[in-house]
Amino acid sequence: MAEAPTLVSATLAQLYMQQDHLEQARRVVARVLAADPLHGHALALADRLAQRSRARLYAAFQPGRGVVVRWHDAPPTPRCT
């Protein structure tokens, strides 16, 4: 039995973005652009994804320390000179 083809389209990537599933959106956009490097909709989505940060804030309670909060994959903080 043959496997069903994997569905990839710029519209699917856009739906992932609207649901804040950015990593899935990035993967779909990459596959669309691999097949068609000049795909206009996918190029526009890639640009929008590049502008969205991958940063995530994590918080956890640690006995003796209280709530510990840290950023993951955050861009470096600009330093004042």
Notes on the protein architecture:
- The protein has 81 residues and is an alpha+beta fold.
- Helix content is 43%, strand content 17%.
- It is built from three helices and two strands, in the order αααββ.
- α1 (10-18) packs parallel to α3.
- The protein is elongated.
Summarize the structure.
With 81 residues, this protein is of the alpha+beta class. It is 43% helix and 17% strand.
Rounded Rg: 18 Å
How many strands appear in the DSSP assignment? 2
Helix content: 40-55%
Identify low-pLDDT runs. Answer: none
CA(first)-CA(last) distance: 64 Å
Largest sheet: 2 strands, antiparallel
Shape: elongated
> How do the SSEs run, as a string of H and E?
HHHEE
Structural class: alpha+beta
Question: What strand line-up does the widest sheet have?
Answer: 1-2
Count of alpha and pi helical runs: 3
pLDDT averaged over residues: 86
The portion of residues forming beta strands comes to 15-25%
Secondary structure blueprint with pairings:
Elements lengths: L9 H9 L3 H14 L4 H12 L4 E7 L3 E7 L9
Helix pairs in contact: 1-2, 1-3, 2-3
Keywords for this entry:
17% strand; alpha+beta; elongated; 43% helix; 3 helices; 81 residues; single chain; two-stranded antiparallel sheet
